[in-house]
Design brief:
The complex is a heterodimer of chains A (about 270) and B (about 200). Chain A is built from 9 helices and no strands. With about 270 residues, chain A is an all-alpha fold. Chain A has 2 domains: about 60 residues, no CATH class; about 210 residues, no CATH class. In chain A, helix 3 packs across helix 4. Chain B is of the alpha/beta class and about 200 residues long. Chain B has one domain: P-loop containing nucleotide triphosphate hydrolases (Rossmann fold, 3-Layer(aba) Sandwich), CATH 3.40.50. Helices cover about 30% and strands about 30% of the residues of chain B. In chain B, the strands form 2 sheets. Chain B has a 6-stranded mixed β-sheet with strand order 6-7-8-3-9-10, sandwiched between helices. A 4-stranded antiparallel β-sheet of chain B has the order 2-1-4-5. The chains are: A mainly alpha (about 270), B alpha/beta (about 200). Chains A and B meet through helix 6 of A and helix 2, strand 6 and helix 4 of B.
């Protein structure tokens, strides 16, 4: 592979564009300078750290440390799911449900890809496992948060209709069906849209990256297709589990709607 | 026979009463005294303390959806889950005689829920529940949004169900209505549930 290395001077020249934004903010009184500075700083530190961590992981090749890195990614993504919820489940469920569904779905799909399609040697090679997991996680996270958000919103909004059905002897599955359906639809909508628009509206980031690194476009396309299929699988599995789990938690064995299990401090998010 | 033993839920005082088949009990009390909570608790829609039995069988041994078909709660503002009236009824043709009895036109099955008045919603919500032929009706001010002729029609229809052996707990603010539909009254007040004759 032949790719063009960048040095610090190249980055500094490109970074001047951010300074330009800062200047714009000052001139136009956008009051974005502070945020811009913090965001740029965070990005630099975070990416340098990730680069350092990945380099270390690639050289040690330890399945244990690769596993820890993967777990840390999943835990951060779980926090993100929780932060995006307008109405959270009360107690440990608010963090636990989204995180555990993502853990299972993303791990399953990543291991599936590593052992049957990509097949690096060894199969847990961090150069393959971590980027794949990262891309699957990012999208599964979006699906799960959208699904849970739609579910809780629908249950609160449609409470009267759901309780009317329950009063008339419907089971909780039947009474919640419209809500769980629309939750699944909104969870899957981004990946459906992304698949439809890919290649026409935007060149996907991973494919672009591989092309810049000197990979033949047709080969890069194959990788992109693989990753889109994996993302679709992870999003589907993860959101299904999260929506079912949420519906289960917000009802009980006596087929009651239990909105009291939503956190009362819902407005603080 | 429905037996309610030491039922407690939120602001509702510990409530105990028996209700024979064909009998109606009127529940009265100021707002916030727990009348709606009482009905919801009997229908097992909220977690609560106490015992409720139907013919001596504790409701815990009965599958909850089946319990609610036997002991059916009818909200004062019934909820809806489809856009139009018709799909809320399992068998629209069975509803036709009841629609006529309550002064609703047969073609209202095609009406959007949005367009219904409060009174139309109450009457359709009642019909929806009566079609299940529940053993016990839990009626939460079913005539609050109705004009005088419609009130009489609803009372006649529900009383005809009592005459077939169904029983009911009827929340009503109206003393004259209470005397028309029931002989016993349960007053929820100051954290007490007291029963008296009408």
């Amino acid at each position: 592979m032949n790719y063009i290395q960048l040095d610090l001077i190249d980055l500094a020249i490109a970074g001047s564009l951010v300074l330009l934004n800062g200047g714009l903010s000052l001139v136009l009184h956008l009051q974005l300078e502070r945020q811009l500075l913090i965001a740029t700083g965070r990005m630099i530190v975070q990416l340098l750290l990730v680069g350092f961590v990945l380099t270390t992981l690639f050289s040690t090749m330890s399945p244990l440390w690769t596993g820890f890195a993967a777990l840390a990614m999943i835990l951060f993504a779980g926090r993100e799911i929780m932060a995006r919820q307008e109405r959270r489940l009360a107690g440990l469920w608010s963090y636990g449900l989204g995180t555990s569904c993502m853990l299972v779905a993303a791990t399953l799909v990543t291991v599936f890809a590593l052992t049957t399609q990509v097949r690096p040697d060894p199969w847990y090679h961090p150069r393959y496992g971590l980027p794949l997991l990262g891309m699957i996680l990012g999208n599964t996270m979006t699906g799960i948060s959208l699904g849970l958000h739609t579910l809780t919103t629908a249950l609160v909004r449609e409470r009267d209709g759901i309780e009317a059905q329950l009063s008339l002897g419907a089971t909780r599955n039947l009474a919640l069906l419209p809500a769980t359906r629309s939750a699944m639809r909104s969870a899957l909508m981004p990946i459906v849209n992304a698949m439809a628009a890919t290649g026409l509206v935007a060149l996907p980031g991973m494919m672009t990256g591989q092309i810049l690194a000197g990979v033949e476009p047709t080969e890069a396309v194959k990788y992109q297709l693989l990753i889109m299929f994996l993302i679709a699988g992870g999003t589907g599995l993860g959101s299904l589990a999260a929506v079912m789990g949420g519906a289960y938690r917000l009802t009980d064995g006596r087929h009651r709607l239990r909105l009291d299990r939503l956190s009362p401090s819902a407005d603080n998010s | 026979m429905l037996s309610v033993r030491a039922l407690r839920h939120g602001s509702l005082a510990s409530t105990t009463f028996d209700l024979a088949d064909g009998e109606c009990l009127v529940a009265q009390g100021p707002s916030g005294s727990g009348k709606t909570l009482l009905l919801r608790a009997i229908a097992d829609l909220d977690p609560c303390e106490g015992t409720v039995l139907l013919d001596g069988h504790s409701r815990e041994v009965i599958h909850a959806p089946r319990w609610r078909r036997l002991v059916t709660y009818i909200s004062t503002s019934p909820g809806w889950w489809c856009e139009k009236v018709g799909p809320h009824f399992a068998d629209w043709s069975a509803a036709l005689p009841l629609l006529t009895a309550l002064g609703l036109p047969e073609e209202c099955g095609g009406w959007p829920i949005q367009r219904l008045s409060t009174g139309e919603r109450q009457r359709l919500g009642l019909i929806r529940a009566l079609l299940l032929r529940p053993r016990v009706l839990l009626l939460d001010e079913p005539t609050s949004g109705l004009d005088v002729p419609a009130v009489a029609a609803v009372e006649d229809l529900v009383i005809s169900h009592f005459n077939t052996g169904a029983s009911g707990v009827w929340v009503s603010h109206d003393d004259a209505q209470a005397r028309r539909i029931a002989r016993r009254r349960l007053v929820l007040e100051n954290g007490n549930a007291k029963e008296s004759m009408l």
